Amino acid sequence: MFSILAAATTAAPKAAPAKAAATNPLDDLQRYWDLSVAWVNSHWLQIGIAIGAGLLIYFVLSMVRSFALKHAQSAEGEMTLTHIAGRVIHKTKSSVLAIIAIRMVAGYAQPPAVIMQMIQFVFTVAVVLQVAIWAREIVLGLIQRRAAEGNNETLSNAMGIIRLLISIALFAIAAIVILDNMGVNVTGLIAGLGIGGIAIGLAAQGIFSDLFASLSIIFDRPFRVGETIKYDTSTATVERIGLKSTRLRSLNGELLVISNTNLLSKEITNFAHLHRRRITFKIGVIYQTTPEMLRDLPALLEEQVVAGGQEFIRSSFLTFGPSSLDFELLFDVFSDEFDEVAAARTDIAIRLFDAMTRAGYSFAYPTQTSFTAAPDGTMIMPYPESPKPRAAAAKAAKPG
């Protein structure tokens, strides 16, 4: 038993140094230092050439960046594609250019595997983050360009939250790419982010729904501020497009506040882009109108439309109405202003009424004639012609 304890005590000091040596960071650093010194001593010429080539590459990349930035900033106009390119170039970091240059010449110097892995890791992180910064500037630049084109106050006010959402999304993707290149299993992380995003989306779906509807209105531009639209059964002028709701001023003066989601869920008629407006008149004349007058009516209608300075489309018989013979008249008014269209419609209507009245046409209006009969079917009202006048007339006709 004493011999076993003695063997254990003598064996323990021998095993301890080996374990400490394996986990001692100072020893690891010493080993890396020795490897680096040996590498420098054996490859000093290649290292020198690589450093020179790296400095040259860095200088060339810096010159290209400066030239492109100067050219982009000299372009006329704000928020053009050239201006956006200049913003993207301006966000290119000098440290990223240096890391790219180092990575390009590292293979020629034949560094140890540990140093090469470190260079590759730093290169991956720098490039992924730089690409995320470029992507953010491109997206934000295009959004701001869209806002500048339409002088959109809503989009300008929303740029803060849009910048935050875009930055979170892009840098989250960049972090996942970096972790994946480090060998980390990102499947669980992606699943967790997906579940978290779904939970946040469900919790704030109303807010996000109206926000994305607002962005849809801003980018797709079904209407703009100041334009008159017909929404559902209301006709109104757009006063303001907000992040959650849109304010409309109806023709009667009421202020309509409608959520963006509900606004886009209904059919919208925009009256602002009508270069011509088609006017339709339904004209009814009485059944006592002669066939000759009915044949002449389409030409009379066309003559009055042309005399009023509008474009005649067609005029034709429409149908036999309950109380009238119905004709249809169609003509176009070339104007974007609703007031001008209303004035032209009034002018043509008065011309038609005047011309048809002078030509002897009578406008029909709803009429009814009642016929009353006895139980045996004999007509009572209107009264049948009396036989007495007939007999008196016959006697008067006989010679005396």
Describe this entry's structure for a reader.
It is built from 13 helices and 10 strands. The radius of gyration is 44 Å and the shape is elongated. A hairpin with a 4-residue loop joins strand 3 (245-250) and strand 4. The longest helix is centred in the first third of the chain and has 38 residues, at 113-150. It has 400 residues and is of the alpha+beta class. The strands form 3 sheets. A 5-stranded antiparallel beta sheet has the order 4-3-2-1-5. Helix content is 63%, strand content 15%.
List keywords for this structure.
single chain, 400 residues, alpha+beta, five-stranded antiparallel sheet, three-stranded antiparallel sheet, 13 helices, 15% strand, elongated, disordered N terminus
Mean pLDDT: 77
> What share of residues is helical?
55-70%
Category from helices, strands and their pairing: alpha+beta
> How many angstroms does the end-to-end distance come to?
178 Å
Question: Strand order within the widest sheet?
Answer: 4-3-2-1-5
What sort of overall outline do the alpha carbons produce when their principal axes are compared? elongated
The whole-angstrom Rg is: 44 Å
Largest sheet: 5 strands, antiparallel
Total strand count, please?
10
Uncertain stretches: 1-22
Helical run tally: 13
Strand proportion:
5-15%
Order of secondary-structure elements? HHHHHHHHHEEEEHEEHEEHEEH
